[in-house]
Amino acid sequence: MREIVVGPAQAAKKLENFLKKEFPIGYVRKLFRKNGVRLNGRRAKPDDAISANDRIQLFIPFEAQKTQPAKPTQQAAMDIIYEDETLLVINKPAGLAVHESKTVSRANTLAGWVERSYKDKEHRPLLAHRLDRDTSGLLLLAKNEKALAELERQFETGKIDKQYLCLVVGRLADNEGKIEVALPGRDGNPVRALTRYKVIERFSETTLLRVNIETGRLHQIRLHFAKLGHPVVMDDQHGDFAFNKRFRKDFGLKRQFLHAGKLAINFDGKRHHWTAPLAEDLAQTLQLIEDHG
């Protein structure tokens, strides 16, 4: 059994949201699904509010195995797009996990980088949302609990503009469209999910898209386009595995073609708009596709 004592700065938030800042989403969902979490000795619910000095007991072990040393890009200085007294925006490289897992140690994650980089600061930045390990692009963090609560509210209500560049298998017929298919949420129950897209360019076997998501479900873009019959190129979980094998051989891409390129919010009376250039491996892949004809 592992026990966590809630600090003053972490109070007045939902138990599930608190745990999701410390552990991978899959592990947190498993805790509640298997009744493996207690709050002050009693069975806990995801929506339970926590207070300073509350005791959280976890009865399902989280085992992070030792892994290979981090790649040089993970050890190097992070690409910080914007930073002020309340917000931090990072251009996350592909291959860098947000949280530790059974195959990734905490030292080799974004959470580990935050701990090392801000250990002497008054406040440690906290994730307002997430990107998959193999998705590159903009990631937003808050430097205090008040800012975090506001950002989480805006993400939950679809107030934040999140735009991705995505390459999918096949040639989409419509120039734009939306996918509104419910996806698994908390405890596996279906929840609303909405994805909008516009075609940027069609190639012989793929289509480049600009994608906006109005909800933030786990693997939303990847699952939605897989359900549409046009999975994300090189998606190793929900994709076209035969196509991916051939595509990797022809173009050398080793991860899913998905990049969080734009992020815009209204915060503290100001309009913020950030962009991150297409990651080098994706840009090279596009150039090869164009050259290939």
The SSE order reads EEHHEEEEHEEHEEHEEEEEEHHEEH
Determine the fraction of residues in helical runs and give it as a percent range: 10-25%
SS summary, helix count: 8
End-to-end gap:
58 Å
Low-confidence stretches: 65-76
Range of strand content: 25-35%
**Globular, elongated, flat, extended or rod-shaped: what is the shape?**
globular
Give the overall pLDDT as a whole number: 88
Number of strands: 18
Structural class: alpha+beta
What composes the largest sheet?
A: 10 strands, mixed
C-alpha-based Rg, rounded: 20 Å
Structure, explained:
- By secondary structure, the chain is an alpha+beta fold.
- It has helices at residues 15-20, 25-33, 72-75, 110-117, 145-156, 220-228, 241-251, 280-292, and strands at 2-5, 13-14, 37-39, 42-43, 49-50, 55-58, 80-83, 87-92, 126-127, 136-142, 161-169, 176-179, 183-184, 190-191, 195-202, 206-213, 258-267, 270-275.
- Helix content is 25%, strand content 29%.
Quick structural overview:
The protein is an alpha+beta fold. It has 8 helices and 18 strands.
